[in-house]
């Protein structure tokens, strides 16, 4: 997973949690979207800014979410949009789903970061094995060899 994709996933997790809080406070979905994304910054927030602008011009929320999902591809943003669409279509409780979704994304991010760290750990051992350890062995062995070569 690339750094940009990881950053976008982190943004989606944070913004979905903020959206869940806005929905818990009693706002409608459009009001919660406006409150959450009106002051947010980042790539994900920019996409939702476009969605909010389309809604202000008279667009349909479900259709605008479909357009956003097609632009997002297969990412965490697309999963968030699917959850919003399912909630619109079937009336499912969105707040609890968004909190669980944010928790799931954060666990995925930590798993990816742990995997990347384990790969880098092996790379960090290379200078130790090929540079520091041989020099240390030479410092330990060289005086002993010199001592053996002394004429007694």
Summarize the structure.
The protein is mainly alpha-helical and 152 residues long. The chain contains six helices and no strands.
Backbone structural class: mainly alpha
Instruction: List low-confidence stretches.
Output: none
- Our count of domains comes out at 1
N-end to C-end Cα span: 66 Å
Topology as a string of helices (H) and strands (E): HHHHHH
Task: Supply the number of helical segments.
Answer: 6
Q: What would you note in describing this structure?
A:
This protein has 152 residues and is mostly helical. The chain has one domain (3-114). It contains six helices and no strands. Helix 3 (43-56) packs antiparallel against helix 4 (61-72). The chain starts with a helix and ends with a helix. The mean pLDDT is 89.
